[in-house]
Amino acid sequence: MASWCDNLAAPPRVLIAPREHENPFLRVSAS
To answer: Which residues of the chain are modeled with pLDDT < 50?
Structure first.
């Protein structure tokens, strides 16, 4: 679960990257 925390610090592009299908809530964070 620490991986999504890392993504939050990364650019929005990473948030909506292939990771979005792994963690649906990442899409909400990117919005």
So the answer is: none
Structure tokens at 28: 């909400």
Buried b (16+ CB within 10 A) or exposed e, 1-31: eeeeeebeeeeeebbeeebbeeeeebeeebe
What is the C-alpha to C-alpha distance for residues 6 and 18, in angstroms, rounded to an integer?
14
pTM, two decimal places: 0.16
Cα angle vertex 20, ends 3, 5, to 5°? 25
